[in-house]
Design brief:
The chain is of the alpha+beta class and about 350 residues long. The chain has helices spanning about 1-20, 85-120, 125-160, and strands spanning about 25-30, 35-50, 50-55, 60-65, 75, 80-85, 160-165, 170, 180, 190, 195-205, 215-220, 225-230, 235-240, 245-250, 265-280, 285, 290-295, 305-315, 320-325, 330-335, 345-350.
């Protein structure tokens, strides 16, 4: 019995000596690096083509047919839509009938004039009678010539009832419909020859003093990723009194045809740039209105998570700009921050 108790006591001491300490929680880390970050403001901008022509009717009337659809590729002279020309055709027909009647009068006066010339040469009639016939012929011929010119003009006008593309390009939106009444002021559609665009950005009045030619502009996609970098090339000399905004423009090359005319995009105007560390959104937590991040403290077997209060600025992509609380070189914990506590042992994994 004594031998068994001695053996159990020895085994117990061996197990106590072999008991492991607290194990660290594996976390992924990222080294904070100072990067060039912008002081910027995002606006909604409109991309407009420098090579888009608006189509307006040159005559008034009702639309009877539309021959193309939005997005269609057309050549110069391609019929786009038809305006009702029946009234104009009836006007031309009436004028043609009147012209034929006037031609008959001209021919009658010509025959009379020739007869009077012979009678005058024979001494049968006086010179006054010949002059009357000459005047009647000249007047009737002038009337006929004037009407002929009017008919040519009205026939030329008939061509405008078929609205044609003025240049090669792509048809834009067609806001009118068959049956709509249009005038010279109506925009029928646009024809875009493609090529570079311009970003139209309206800057609020309180920011207008910071606007300068050459300021960088980024065109962003829906996720905030930069699609294009450009700069302000035009600043309007006048403030829009209705909206209290200042119009600026920036060229937007469209080599890969990423953009469309009249497309709305997000534009980031970069007022200035400075060095600051960035931190992923996955590394940030909120508590009681404050923002926190964890960094790895210590080396080797003694690494623990330390919680820090941080102050952040703009969100760039999926990263916050850190204004205070994180220094370049800090090892930032970017995973599992919801279950970490200050001083908790961790195992860093790059």
């Amino acid at each position: 019995m004594a031998a068994v108790l001695l053996l159990l006591n020895g085994c117990g001491k061996q197990n106590a000596n072999a008991a492991p300490g607290p194990r660290g929680f594996p976390v992924k880390i990222q080294i904070a690096k100072a990067q060039l970050v912008p002081d910027s403001t995002d606006y909604l901008a409109a991309l407009k083509s420098r090579n888009a022509a608006e189509l307006h009717p040159q005559v008034e009337g009702d639309i009877t047919a539309i021959f193309v659809h939005a997005g269609a590729q057309v050549q110069a002279g391609t019929p786009v839509l038809q305006i009702d020309s029946r009234k104009q055709e009836a006007t031309v027909s009436n004028q043609v009938a009147t012209y034929k009647s006037k031609l008959a009068t001209v021919e009658l006066n010509r025959v009379d004039l020739e007869r009077k010339k012979k009678l005058y040469e024979a001494g049968v009639i006086a010179k006054a009678d010949l002059d009357v016939s000459q005047a009647a012929f000249d007047t009737s011929k002038s009337d006929a010539d004037a009407l002929d010119a009017a008919i040519r003009e009205q026939r030329e006008q008939l061509r405008y009832y078929t609205v044609k593309a003025t240049t090669v390009g792509v048809i834009g939106d067609i806001p009118v419909h068959v049956g709509d009444h249009v005038t010279n002021a109506t925009i029928l559609t646009t024809v875009d020859r493609g090529g570079p665009l311009e970003a139209y950005i309206n800057i609020p009045a309180e920011k207008s003093a910071q606007v300068k030619s050459g300021i960088k502009v980024e065109i962003l996609d829906e996720t905030g990723q930069t699609l294009l970098r450009t700069q302000i090339s035009f600043i309007s000399p006048h403030m829009d009194t209705a909206t209290q905004t200042l119009l600026v423009k920036a060229p937007a090359p469209n080599l890969n045809h990423k953009f469309l005319n009249e497309q709305q995009v997000h534009a980031r105007v970069i007022w200035s740039e400075h060095q600051a560390p960035l931190i992923p959104v996955t590394a940030v937590s909120r508590m009681s209105g404050k923002m926190f991040a964890f960094v790895v403290d210590g080396q080797g077997q003694q690494t623990v998570a330390r919680q820090r209060i941080i102050n952040v600025g703009d969100l760039i992509g999926n990263d916050y700009v850190v204004l205070d609380g994180i220094q370049p070189g800090d090892r930032i914990i970017v995973s599992g921050v919801q279950i970490l506590a200050d001083g908790m042992p961790v195992i860093p994994q790059s």
